[in-house]
Design goal:
The structure is a single chain. By secondary structure, the chain is α+β, with helices and mostly antiparallel strands. The radius of gyration is 45 Å and the shape is rod-shaped. The two termini are about 55 Å apart.
């Protein structure tokens, strides 16, 4: 903007000089010689000032116009960035509200021991401490995914003396992880394992006896637990 200040200052000075020349004409000297040349010089000076004045006006007008376009383009760019930020904020608000209403988490434990488990038998963790989202069913021992996402599961299995029991976290048609509890030489043996699983909507997850592996009697103590929650 400094260049405009200079341009306006020059224009002001030139116009001032021109006005002074118009209001205070130079007093013609008293002599008998012809004064035609003198009048021509005054006319030429006035013409030059008028021409310079016009050029300065055009120069200032052009620069102001260019600066206006630059400011306008910059403003449009900033407006676009602000609109993008507003859109991102709206998306974040939607995600927060979604998480508030779609929080999935459960924690359940076994209140009675299970003796002589058979292969693929499902453990029904009957005491439900937390069941946000209602995805775990104590009657079936199954967790059912209400939507696609990543889920964290943790299982703790305890067994009594002289028993070695091998359990599995079963997802749909396969075993996702193994829990190996060994109390062959202990009064009580416990084992824990955890896993992050990618589930599709409708997939079911449960804790089952892993085949016939282990040392009978296959005994699951009442201290056993099953926990899970949705990550994303």
């Amino acid at each position: 903007m400094a260049r405009y200040h200079i341009s306006f200052l020059v224009l002001f000075c030139v116009i001032s000089l021109f006005e002074q020349g118009s209001t205070n004409p130079v007093e013609e000297p008293h002599h008998d010689a012809p004064i035609i040349g003198h009048h021509k010089a005054l006319l030429k000076a006035k013409f030059d000032l008028t021409s310079l004045n016009g050029q300065l006006k055009n120069y200032v007008h052009r620069d102001v116009k260019e600066e206006f376009h630059e400011v306008e383009n910059h403003t449009n760019h900033n407006t676009h960035e602000i609109e993008e930020l507003h859109h991102e904020i709206e998306q974040l608000h939607k995600e927060v509200e979604y998480l508030k209403t779609h929080h999935v988490a459960f924690s359940a434990e076994l209140t009675h021991p299970i003796e002589n488990m058979v292969a693929d038998e499902v453990v029904h963790f009957d005491k439900v401490r937390v069941n946000s989202g209602g995805s775990y069913c104590a009657d079936t021992g199954k967790f059912v995914a209400e939507e696609e996402g990543f889920f964290y599961f943790s299982v703790t299995i305890c067994t009594k003396k002289d028993s070695i029991v091998e359990m599995a976290l079963h997802v749909e048609d396969h075993d996702e992880m193994i829990i190996f509890a060994d109390a062959e030489h202990l009064e009580l043996g416990c084992a824990s394992n955890s896993e992050i699983v990618h589930l599709q909507k409708g997939d079911h997850v449960e804790v089952v006896k892993h085949g016939s592996d282990g040392v009978p009697p296959f005994y699951v103590h009442s201290m056993s637990t099953f926990t899970g929650f949705m990550l994303h």
